[in-house]
Amino acid sequence: MAIIDKPLALPAGEPRRAARPLGVFTRPKEQSGISAWLTTVDHKKIGIMYGSAALFFLLIGGVAALAIRVQLATPNNTFLSGDAYNRMYTMHGTVMVFLVVMPIGAAFANFLMPLQVGARDVAFPRINAFSFWVFFFGGLMLNTSWFLGGGADGGWFNYAPNNGVAFSPSHGIDFWNAGLLIAGIGSLTGSINLITTVLNMRAPGMTLMKMPVFTWMTLVTQFLLLFAIPVITVAQLLLTFDRRFGANFFNVQQGADPLLWQHLFWVFGHPEVYLMILPAFGIVSEIIPTFARKPIFGYPFMVFSGIAIGFMGWGVWAHHMFVSGLGPLSVTAFSVATMFIAVPTGVKILNWMATLWGGKLILNTPMLFSIGLITQFTVGGLSGVSHAIAPSDTQQTDTYYIVAHFHYVLFGGAFFGFVGGVYHWFPKAFGYKLNDTFGKVQFWMMVVGFNLTFGPMHILGLQGMPRRMQTYDDAMGFNFWNLVATIGAFILGVGVMLLLANVAYSYSKWKSAGRPNPGPDPWDARTIEWSIPSPAPSHNFDTDPVVTSLDDFWHRKYQEDENGVVRRVHTGEEIAQPGNGEGVHLPAPSYWPIVLAFGIPIIGYGIIFNLWLCIPGALVVIGALFGWALEPADDLDAPGHDHGHDGPGHDGSGDHAEPELETV
Amino acid sequence: MTDDAHGTRQWAWRAEDDPARVRKAMPTPRPSRQTISLKRAGAAALGLLLLAGCAEDKPLNTFEPRGDRADGIYNLMTPIWYIMGLIFVAVIGGTIVLAIKNRVNGDELDPEDLPHQTHGNTRLEVGWTILPGVLLAAISIPVVANIWRLEEKNEPGQLDVMVIGQQWTWSYRYDVDGDGFFADANADGKVDEADEKFPLDTALDPDDVVTQNEIVMPVGQQVDLTITSRDVIHSFWIPRLNGKRDAVPGKFSTWSLQANEPGKYTGWCTEFCGLSHARMRMDAMVLTEADFNTWLENQQRPAEAPDEATDPDAFAGRQLFINQCVSCHVIREEPGPDAIPYAPDFQANLKAGYAPDLTHFATRSVFAGGIYSQYEGRGTDANDDALNAADYVKLSELSKDPQGRDDYRWNTAELKRWIANAPAQKDMAPDDLRGMLPFPALTDQQLDQLSAYLATLD
Amino acid sequence: MTDVAIPVEHAPAEHHEAGHASSLGLSNTKLAFWLFLGSECLLFGALISTYLLSVGNFVGQVVAGNPRVVSTMPAEIMNEIAEKGTVNGFFDIPFTSASSFILLMSSLTMVLAHKAVTESNYRASKIWLSATALLGATFISGQVYEFTVFYREGLYYDGNLFGSAFYTLTGFHGAHVTIGILMLVALLIMAFKGKLQADRAETVEIIGLYWHFVDVVWVLIFTVVYLIP
Question: CA-CA distance, A189 to A128, in Å (whole number)?
Fold first, then answer.
């Protein structure tokens, strides 16, 4: 149990030394600087790294998006050749889904979820670091394909047999496979880690139905990942075997069924959609009650609708395949099932509206982004119903109508929620607030840019403009709205970049003002992560929070008086923990997660270019596993560690880590 | 759209395209499209459906159904669009109204001044869980009916067409003799049970006909399609006649088309299929029943070799064709490809029989995957549907008529450019056996001769 | 809870007896491992589905006489497949049944090994762990032998759908068994160093869970691949 009952004092006396202080096997000590980040196992730092890495990949995906929009601004444009366009849109989709939206979800889950459940860290801190690094190196590896023969050119959905060597002879799709397989290892280990944390490491008193909605949505999301990742892993491995070793899984000449790929891909792909949006649902479910100053309306419905979305997400994958000739029976079943997914999402939207109803709304930046999510997601949800209707989908699928739909869901929904979340929790992570006026400017720019970009795509799609088109003919009547969308895309791009500008601007303001601390509870918020100082200290909680109700922190601040009127009995500052929990023992940093994660892409390059390269990669992996297993479980100066370093309980955690890796 | 002089589908792919032709492709003077569209923009922002329905120059518009299947989908969706519009206004309007009405100034907020602390209302929430469920259940009834209607097939004996996608063009095999087979698997001239299995590997059933790019069909009749692909997945879509259906290699999906009026209906491959996905077009050319029968009879006529004395250019072109082009292209009844039936390698466009079948080439109105017009002139205006359809069966004759040459001119220039260097006109990968090879060795005179020969294939 | 400084990542089981009401009463490691096995179920589910679909398509093509498929293996094998409409005749069922039995027996020895470690019976734990690893290795040897025979008979990985699907599915399972053997060897090394005491029983239990899972998956694969036509 990682939960500690009372603040601890540093024991006096000489720091003890291990029996066998083998130089390389001691754990790193750095507390600051780059090496501290490279070896950290702190979930908050890892969360911040996930977010930063996602922003880095967002730049790549964003540049690709703008290149696509420039190409499509005018008919018969020659800015990008067909080949370049195909690589550009494939990499845009792949990067945005796997390396931007998913890791931003992981960033919030990592940073926030342990704080919300009152845990010291996640269940397996070293594996957590490994999850991040393996995702990051996998993402980097995918993007090295730009320089090593061109990005993937099969679309993010990468349908067989167009993804075979015969039709895509360059290495792009090999990189796509390898990079995503490697990043998938990180998602899988991360999901196991986070689920264990939620289920096993909640603060005393925090029953499942007292968990914040964000934590619930994280739990659902991670379960979706846990079961979805192995399916795409299988699909990508089969494709790798086909492409590199001559297997026949997607070889139609040998009688293979190309729909196998579509089934495997969408069995993964549809839960994937929900696991991208649910964290954002969780985020706005925290923000809206905070700034409406009333509890979330219908907490159990919010929770169960999230679970329902998670479950139903597994039964609707074939709605991506309505036109591939499944037969009317399957189409009927999947069409009706898909339509009913609108029910739990509708419940969520109505409950958010009911939370706004009668509230006293502080329309600051996080709140604006949350309202942006509600409205824009509604548009995406409605267009979603229109292509859940299979006959209508035969007209709409693979047109720009679909492009509009999923950008309204994933950009107007998920990404807006994420940006709102960044504004909301920024002081908890970094100790200063982002400028609100700047934030509002950013919000309106993003709203205008977003709707100018993707709103017209509804029209284009219904007027028959297919997706994945390098260009279009002047006679098609697509010119005007495409130009509008391109203009909108640039406004949107500037809007997104304003986030970075705001970080820099607010930082310099804060610095010149003498670095004032925003206090533990700058928003008069509801959940227990606001009961610790800002920025959150490395040990999170000085003492175990004891939770008695949903929105526990709020209920410690506000209580009903004898007349039944809710009164403030404490300010957040009064009851917040001081953050001085000295001597709290924390898991020590480790070199091995990053080393282990570094070895895996080397094997990936080996599979693409030369199998001999797999040997050094495997050596790094094996060496790192040994290092992982043999390094002392703690830094050797750790206080209060009476367990005995040479006892058998401390060198075997590598055994536990091993099985997680074998899906490599 | 391009209501200009020649009205070909202009695809200004490359800078080396003749600038004069690009200029000709410019719209004739009229209020600029942007001005018109800007005026529309305000209305469009309110209701995209409204705008999608009122555009008259959008050949792929799904809101202009012209066949019974597309009508069915359109009629199914019309009330649903209205319901969705209502929900859209209610939710988004409601959210915005709530946000504006309930806003307070955060800086002057009294922390004691709390709104009523509602935790929920189970009855209300159960209500708005069940209500959408009931609404969706009601909607699903006509939806399911429509799904099954889309799968309805003709009685046996009606016109059947096999639609074959390949990178990056469509071909159509007509089961003219009505025997249910599209192919002669053993290339033995006898079509029987043994031929059923792998029709793509095989020669055409000798009694049937094949055409390219445009599916030609009689007005009013339902035409059943069997859709498949030679290489990757494509998708066959004529939006104004029906929704789309994927062409999956190794699978034979059924689908159907029906058009209410004669005309030309444009479509576009809608499943990503590689390099020239954006240049893989198809059309449905809907003719009156009499015209259709004339067309079908003509297609069954064997090709006639040009006469050396009367048409020496065409004669020389035929020799060139037989020496070079037949290694990929088929002209039925002509020497060459029939002797080497369809190669048993589906991933090769560069083998005999896999490149487009050029029999009766001159009767078609487009080539190169539907991106170039075979005839130029007023009569081939891609958007003047009725004119085009009425003249379709007479295309090759009209082009030879000295009086009609201004209306229908054999498009020698683009045809020659295409033959000389196809990959420069359209992204292809002939080195990987995908697409047409460039022929830099052909002289201008030889290209003229080939063009002249192709013009005789009527 | 005298030990307040337990590193989070390997909290030993005994501390959970005093655990909070909010936790599940499973140690983190064991819970994580169950989750991992849940994920593995989907992995093998996808692989088995792929096998069934691919071999079904393969047999269909052989029965239909697709020359491109028929030419990928010797005629007598293809004729038999075409006649019977199944690939089962290709397998040596008695041999694989024997090796399956050996793998199943290893589950028994694994249980005994865990019991021995729990009871701090070092000698017995060494014996049963070795026995488990040896039985596993015997199974793997049998698989290698089987692969060799099939390869000689003309079933190539890149030859046809059947070869690709068969070697991939059974190979994945074999890789899982091999990793299991490596984990058992690691336990054995610890046992011989005297480090495998009763407080490591959970580690043994978890590796046992993995081992049983791999066995159960084999029962499924054996049924689907070898027995059901």
Answer: 7
